[in-house]
Write a structure and sequence with these properties.
Layout (H helix, E strand, L loop, with lengths): L3 H5 L3 H12 L7 H14 L4 E9 L5 E9 L5 E7 L6 H4 L2 H8 L3 E4 L10 H9 L3 E8 L5 E8 L7 H34 L2 H8 L8 E14 L1 H7 L2 H21 L3 E6 L2 E6 L4 H22 L9 E17 L4 E4 L1
Antiparallel strand pairs: 1-2, 1-6, 2-3, 4-5, 5-6, 7-9, 7-10, 8-9, 10-11
Helix pairs in contact: 2-3, 2-7, 7-8, 10-11
């Protein structure tokens, strides 16, 4: 029987978990390890969570959300990602997580209550697994974005109101930590995607002063498609874009597989660089694989255009300067 004191009393165990999160846990850069430790501390604080599910939105070309799943009887936490297509699927649209994201309000379902609404398909799965009480809580970001954390217990009678209040305080603290971690991760993703991994690492580590730079010994690689102007004039716009994406995706995979880095796309051209190994070793494998890539892309074009999908390579081993130049408000990394 829950009393009024249960509803009003502060949960001391949850407060200790929050204190650990803000003092020590927030310094962790690995969310799976952090989440596992946090959940085990919650259990040790006499809040009997059985399963926790944390979903965090992200800014990424393919991924819309990262999720971490913790189960009491399973070591560690599992990390999953959801593509942008998943956000449009009925499985997500009809989930408590989607509703919390839309409304910013908590959802509570006492699963053993005869009058508990079964308004989300996943609730029946929780009951079948032995769940007795479920709560999905919003984690509000400073930007207005809403992430979420859900808690499930298998204890007879479910959570007390005091335990729900304690879990809400954990969720509030977790929102701050998740936003900080997500901001760093998004910055890395955007740098990797739009600048390149190595250059992005330098920028994030503080190499941002105008006029600064460093000398690099590297092999410069440039390739483009002969006859592309004619092809672009004869194929529909959507077809040209699809073919370019196929071509660049395959060529980037070829370059990165050999330890190189794609630096820039220019129309139908790609600029890349290779490090470390002798010149003959660095160029032969990519060129062989690139020819196969061009053959694949050519087969995707119309038969009349196949002859146009021929690639031209230019390469040179040299000492180059990686510079940060531009105006005081707009810089670019140039080589």
């Amino acid at each position: 029987m829950q009393t009024r004191a249960d509803k009003l009393e502060h949960h001391e165990g949850a407060a200790r978990v929050v204190e650990w999160m803000m003092r020590e846990g927030r310094h962790s850069t690995h969310m799976r390890e952090f989440g596992d430790e946090m959940c085990r501390r919650i259990v040790a604080a006499d809040i009997p969570i059985w399963r926790a599910f944390c979903s965090v939105g992200t800014l990424h070309p393919q991924i819309v959300m990262t999720a971490y799943i913790w189960r009491r009887n399973t070591p560690g936490a599992l990390r999953m990602t959801a593509t942008r297509a998943f956000e449009r699927e009925a499985e997500f649209a009809g989930s408590p997580i989607a509703e919390v994201k839309r409304s910013g309000r908590m959802i509570r379902r006492r699963l053993t209550d005869p009058d508990c609404p079964m308004d989300y398909p996943v609730l029946r799965e929780f009951i079948a697994d032995g769940g007795t009480d479920y709560a999905a809580m919003p984690m509000l970001c400073s930007s207005g974005e809403v992430n979420s954390i859900t808690w499930l217990t298998d204890r007879t009678g479910g959570f007390t109101e005091r335990e729900i209040a304690g879990l809400a305080s954990v969720a509030e603290a977790l929102a701050i930590i998740v936003e900080l971690q997500a901001t760093r991760r998004v910055a890395r993703h955007l740098m990797d995607t739009y600048v390149g991994h190595r250059t992005g690492e330098r920028v994030l580590s503080g190499a941002i002063t105008r006029g600064s730079g460093e000398a690099i010994r590297a092999v410069i690689w440039f390739c483009d498609l002969r006859g592309f102007t004619t092809l672009a004039d004869t194929l529909p716009r959507e077809k040209v874009i699809a073919l370019l994406n196929d071509y660049f995706e395959t060529m980037v995979e070829v370059v990165t597989a050999e330890g190189g880095e794609a630096l820039k796309f220019m129309g139908d051209g790609m600029l890349a660089r290779h490090y470390a190994r002798p010149l003959s070793e660095r160029l032969a494998p990519p060129r062989k694989k690139s020819r196969r890539a061009i053959s694949y892309v050519a087969r995707r074009a119309s038969p009349r255009s196949i002859s146009a999908w021929r690639c031209t390579w230019a390469k040179s081993a040299m000492a180059i300067s990686a510079l940060r130049i531009g105006s005081t408000s707009r810089l670019s990394a140039r080589r």
